[in-house]
Amino acid sequence: MTSSTFAAATLSQILQKGYNDLAELRRMAFTVGAEHYLFQQETPDGFIREWISFLQTRQWLGCLVDYLKQDSPQNIGLTDELASLPCPTLVKVQIILTNDICLENWSEKRQKLAAVLGLPATQPTFVAAVWNPVRLLLVVPQEQLSIFQIICKRGEYGSELLSVAPYKLLSEPAQNTWRIVAWQHPFRLSNNVLTPTITWQEALLTAVQNPPTPSSIPPNEPTPAPPPTTAQSDEPFPPPPVIPPTSAPIHQPPRVGKDAPKPSSVKDTPLPIINLDKEEATQSPSPSDVEKKE
User: Fold this and answer.
1) Interatomic CA distance for residues 152 and 145, integer angstroms
2) What is the tens place of the pLDDT at every residue in 191-237?
3) Whole-structure pTM over 0.85, yes or no?
4) Quick one: pLDDT at residue 51?
5) Structural domain boundaries of the chain?
6) Distance between CA 58 and CA 255 in Å, rounded?
7) pLDDT for 247
8) Domain 90-216, CATH class in plain words
């Protein structure tokens, strides 16, 4: 038994003993790295078996070990041999495509992207996908991120690639949206066509109305970025609430300077005097009326 096979078997046992909840396993897979459409098993054991095989193929078992160290440091199953497994620094990246045609002939598109990034044909790893517009969330080694941004700027991948953004720099609603898409709405791959199962707007609405609780977000997840402060962000946010007009008069500040009203030439009308006993207003007598009475 090779060291990789022994490590895979040991990690499978650790997960089976301490992580027997399917929802929790899917959250872990999103953090460590996985193509969720491959893991549609309905039992924790089936999910663990497929996920460990996936990590072993990409030589990412050390990344799972690093996750377990932070999530459960007291886990006695993490031997020194497991702790020595290498883990490349992986980052999630959101890319936006210009049209739906980009999802056809998927194996060729994937190989082309891997060749441009200098990665093996089995990589990069596609985590989730949505419609309208077509967005993909993928995992690449950190050193490939700058290459990704350069080829997007130069158009070396073609006109299909519209923008590239690191996941950790997305807003909190956007990060929550991707979690929900990966956990609950994995894309389908059939006849060499990648097909998302939900639109970005639908997933975003779900994330805003029912955001993941802090306990459901793994400890290794990056801290969400603050909401963007510029109008250049491509993240759609719900429109602000419409405030109905009020019937109350609007208070206007007094006008001064050139805008001040000119004094009126008409004599001021005497102010009414409120009779508190009769609760009615009477006109104050003018000086001429007073002289007549006298």
Assistant:
1) 11
2) 999 999 999 999 999 999 988 765 556 555 654 444 443 333 444 43
3) no
4) 93
5) 3-83, 90-216
6) 73
7) 44
8) alpha beta
